[in-house]
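Troubleshooting: if your tokenizer reports a length mismatch, compare your output against this known-good record of 409 residues.
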Amino acid sequence: MMWQLFAGALAMLALSAIFICWPRRASAQNNQTPAQLFEERLQLLALARDAGELAEQDFSTAAAELKQQFLEQEQQAIRYQQPRHKAIFHLTLVLLTALIVGLTYSQNGHYRQLSDWEYAQQNLPAFGQRALLGEGEPMGERDMQLFSLALRTKLAKEGDDAIAWMLLGRVWMTLGMLEEAVESFERSLKLMPERTPVLISYSQALIMLGGDLNLAKAGQSVAKVLMREPENIDAISLMALIAYERGDNEQATAAWQLLADRLEQDDPRLVVVQERLNELKAAASETLVSSSAAQTAGRSVSLTLQVSNELASAHPDAVLLVFVRAAGGPAVPLAAKRLPMQAGVLNVTLTVDDAMQPGWDLNQAELIEVVARMAVSGSVERTAQDVEVVSAPLEFTATDLRLALTLEE
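Known-good structure output:
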């Protein structure tokens, strides 16, 4: 590409040189020579003298002046026609033109971009090895930009390629161009919708981009991975991070605890997970202390729920609905919480802050029932596939009621 650019520049200079020289030769061939002009004007003076319009003395003076002008013009023509002077003149014009073209292109041209484009295409395999396999020096920001340029060129020339879109998305994400990264991952998922590395990277970009809608999309992508690979460490970590970003500290704590149980003791990620767990526990303690005064006046229900492994394995996409209703009263819950399906022991606390509508909370009923339901469809409407357990009627003899239930088929 660069040699074509230089060839074009040389061609333009050659054309400029032709245009500089050609008009002067043409004017010299088409106009009268100085000798012809001198003879014509001298004849006009002689006619004026013969007609009595010009005295003899005036004729002699005018003829002398005309002769002097003719001699000066002849001397100038002789100097110009000397090859050395003509060559210097034309060479000066050509060099001046070249200088103007060079300065203009150096300020406004795109030769650097063209050079980078050629370099990026030639080194695409090397960039790929450095990015995927970690071979060679770590890639800096400029290398990432060149890598993205090469990938975009490949996609433009060869059409959609799932791996190329995935790599481009990772490059965009590294450069902080999150919206472009999300778009690239979506293009890759259209071609390979079940590929785990793409789903993980797509979720990471959505979490970094933020927003409720993006977090919901990230949760769906992570769920797809966990359905096929329940032990995927990256997916469990992202599930905890999504819950943390949503402000659901209970689910985040459960997910990070699950991650901590699966990591090896010498895994460097375990230290980070433990720090997050300690941070959440400290935040929970502070929240409990700060809200103790408000909760003293209100009521709460503390439930220890045991979910069987068989039930959780049979319905991994279901959700857990835990709610309190007035015994023999309206069907609208006094308090409710929605949790992800998981096996094991869950500690759930329902307070007046978990009311579903204003003016109808735990303070409004003396006799209550606690319900734990596995909702297969995720809806609050009960279906035939749902499994639930209901406590016996409980009376608020104390501000905080505690009980345990087991949910199993």
